[in-house]
Amino acid sequence: MDFTFSKEHELLRKMIREFAEREVRPLATEIDETERVPMETVRKAAQLGLMGVPFPQEYGGVGAGEIGYCILMEELGKVCTSTATVIGAHTGIGAMAIYLDGTPEQKVKYLTPLAKGEKIAAFALTEPQAGSDAAAIRTMAVRDGDHYVLNGNKIWITNGDIADVISVFAVTDKALGARGGVTAFIVEKDFPGFSVGSIEEKMGIRGSSTAELIFNDCRVPKENVLGTFGAGFVTAMKTLDIGRVSLAAACLGGAQAALEMSVRFASQRRQFGVPIAQKQAIQWMVAEMSAEIEALRSLVYRTAWMVDTGRPFSREAAICKFYGSEVASRCIDRAVQIHGGMGYMRGFSIERGYRDARIAEIFEGTNEVQRIVVASDIFRQVGVRISP
Amino acid sequence: MEIIVLIKQIHDPTRLRVSSQGRLVTAGVPLIINPDDLRALEEALKLKDSLGARVTVLSLGPPEAEEALREALAMGADRAYLLSDPAFADPDALATTYALGSAIHKIGLPDLILAGQLSGHGISAQVGPRLAEYLGYPQVTNVSALEIDNGSVLAKRVLEESYLEVEVALPAVVTVNSAANLPRLPHGARIMNAYQDPPGSERFVVWTARDLDLEPQKVGAAGSATQIRATTVPEPKGPPEMLTGSPHEQARALVGRLRAKNLV
Fold first, then answer.
1. CA-nearest residue of chain A to B183?
2. Is the CB of A49 less than 8 angstroms away from the CB of B70?
3. Which of A15, A17, A22, A87 to probe the B interface (max B CBs under 10 A)?
4. Which top CATH class is B2-218?
5. Hey, what domains does chain A have and what are their CATH numbers?
6. What ranges do the domains of chain B cover?
7. Packing angle between helix A65-79 and helix A7-19, nearest 10 degrees?
């Protein structure tokens, strides 16, 4: 057994940490307040390859695999969850769907500029009637000559308003349902009939935009069918499986930052004549945060290693997602408590972190759905089938 | 144009402590490229970008110094030379110059040698100047900006209260200070490729004292004219005094203290 990172991954982490400190941390408060990650920051990330970390170099990526990508998400998660979300939705699900199931031509045409960060990606599955029940989507795609015509609305799409390329899931055969009746499409923002609807105002990850996408007789060339016709639901689930690992990596970064800030604060803040670090109540909170973070770190990077070495990882990815997001929530909650009134004040990263953490228990598959995924997999092994 | 950049790997000086026995505690302290050397490398890479150049990085150090050279390759250097041999251990500036100078003769004399002004480790600021003397090159030290024009280096030297602009014909040795630039971050893909050429390959050469035909009594501790007798930490000058009040009041109080000590 060897738990060390490769030399390349260590150097990659060093570069990413320096990027995060130089280019992201000074803007984190402003990103939250102005509700946008500056495109200049995205451009600077792209110059270092950070918009395509997991993808092969032949498609413009860094070639650092899921482990490298988790390192990116962990380091960004420490500094600014909004920036992690923008880059994460672009890389981990938007472009990832094209990487997993795109044809070589689609990878050259779409994945390469996405991996280089010349274009931004989004992933559009959720609809008003289809959240956890993703198979209930109603956006329809009907063949018309060399095109498919898409009609319907997608909601809560991260990067929806800034994306150039969107992986969209639509019903192509209602009778077949999720298994065989859903197809993935690569949609460019300039395709006729595509438009961006309302932009949501959120509690946290405010710098990451959340948009409604409207497909009104949107014409998509038939070459832009992503993966096998009718197998779109499989593409969606495969993509989300991988996305959950890196999402947990961002949670790991957030939790780690909460711990580090708490340790610093507790060492300096004096009450009753001593630093509050001398109080057992604080010590226990710090020890518990540390234990959960260590467990999460092992889980995240072991699962990333499973992805990179071609092992099955769906159950572990689901555990990453719900455990990681809940560790982050518990750690930032304790960090608020340790900071006392300071932890509740606007403009400090603790208060922002508290708001930012909550969404991770909800998006990319609610934690309840993840528990079903895990339980289904466990019961399947003893011959019991669970239906959601 | 051929440029050689001297790279020294050091323990991060901001993380070093001195033990109660007066020894430097290096355990757990990250190894980094000496910050001034990183700026020298950035100057070399800027020249490569603007004029075209082959950038060679050269380091004298233990096998771990490979990491520093790999980072330099990731940033954009074309090839690396590591001089590593137990016989090289604990050299002073004299023994270092002998080994580096001999290696540069073997690599091939370049048009420009760039080095950090000083290391955050030895802080002697001697290796650059000694190497220039050893090779018979002119030298410009403590440079914060440089350009190449028509076979000459135009360099801005930092003096106490002014700058000195100098011109010197190539080939030359230039040492770069901490004000020179903000070194670039390496592209992720270059990082992932930085370890592709194994030690001993054409792009990553490793030489021992024997490879360079060096005289044993002139390398490492044996070849050093100076020895470190002790490392001490200055005694703190008593607790600091914190000024309070409005910024205006604090400024007045501060000026008062400085006047009392005849400092202003």
1. A18
2. no
3. A15
4. alpha beta
5. 7-120 (1.10.540.10), 122-231 (2.40.110.10), 234-380 (1.20.140.10)
6. 2-218
7. 30
